[in-house]
Amino acid sequence: MPAQQQHDQQRLAHEAMPLDEGGPTRAPLAGAGAGSQAATEAAVQAAARTGGVRISNVSKSFGTDESRTLVLDGIDLSVGMGEFVSVIGPSGCGKSTLLKVIAGLTDADGGEVTVDGNPVSAATKNKMIGLVPQSPALMPWRTVLDNVTLPMSVNRGANGGRSMRDPVELLESFGLGHAIDKYPAQLSGGMQQRVAIARAFVFDPSVLLMDEPFSALDEMNRDQQRMGLLDFWQSNRKAVIFITHSVPEAIMLSDRIVVMAAHPGRIAEIIDVDLPRPRSVDDYATDEFRDLEGIVRAKLRAVMEPGAADAAAGGTGETR
Ligand SMILES: Nc1ncnc2c1ncn2[C@@H]1O[C@H](COP(=O)(O)OP(=O)(O)OP(=O)(O)O)[C@@H](O)[C@H]1O
């Protein structure tokens, strides 16, 4: 195999490498074969219950037998189909580790993760999970189009029969139609990150995992990218789990915000973002947005400085 192709395959190994070669393990539909209306209805309801991402009692520790550190402790979270959930919390609370467990890049010590009812091993094998890392990780010697089509060539025939997106159309949707023949070094940081997001959509995944994708960008660029993502997601609703350190970003994008506490990492609060959609940059200035900012910041202060909760949240320590 030519060296470049080998390198590409290694870089994308996580996309290609199922943890379990056991084949698709989609739960059988209730009543399949019975042919009755009731059985069909039961199947539809069962599918609805298992859709999206389900994280049940997940724990993870690092270290040796002599000295282990518990990093995730009993994480329970469901993210429905088409729901946008952000995860925010102090540095080191385990946000990236949680994303890696969901993506099948690291094994949990205990608990279970399913994607549309499938265990992670089957979900990764069938390309049901799209991952956008913190840095775009583009191949500098490949054009924008070749970077986006790379998962297709590396994983040819390994998508469990899922439909694939037209890469040129995808790039056009992200405002990159003019850049398909350019190389990553010829693009701004924001454009590079958009290429990485477009690449994650190639297999039309059920769930999109995003680990601080805009953190390296300046504030203006960052705002532009997050509104672009929001526009695209509005018409391509996926279950999204989005890690961020920015409270306004979490509010602008999300249906719910998960606030994590550290040592060990656990879910401290889940806050509903009941702002209407579609959203725009004008929303930053509304009273509702600012109220939510206050609530999320108070909860963050509470998990970072236990004891400050009551003062920060007006005496109750409550969020909503
Ligand atoms: N492979 C590993 N081996 C040992 N410890 C690890 C490993 N990966 C993560 N950790 C530890 O697990 C803890 C959680 O790390 P993680 O990167 O998930 O946190 P985070 O919340 O994403 O942090 P940040 O916000 O700074 O990115 C940290 O203490 C980290 O040092």
UniProtKB/TrEMBL annotation:
SMART domains: AAA
Record key words, sorted: ATP-binding, Nucleotide-binding, Transport
Cross-referenced Gene3D superfamilies: P-loop containing nucleotide triphosphate hydrolases (3.40.50.300)
Domain called ABC transporter: residue spans: 53-289
Protein's UniProt keywords contain ATP-binding: yes
A Pfam family assignment: ABC_tran
GO terms assigned for molecular function: ATP binding; ATP hydrolysis activity
Name of the protein this chain belongs to: ABC transporter ATP-binding protein
Taxonomic lineage: Bacteria, Bacillati, Actinomycetota, Actinomycetes, Micrococcales
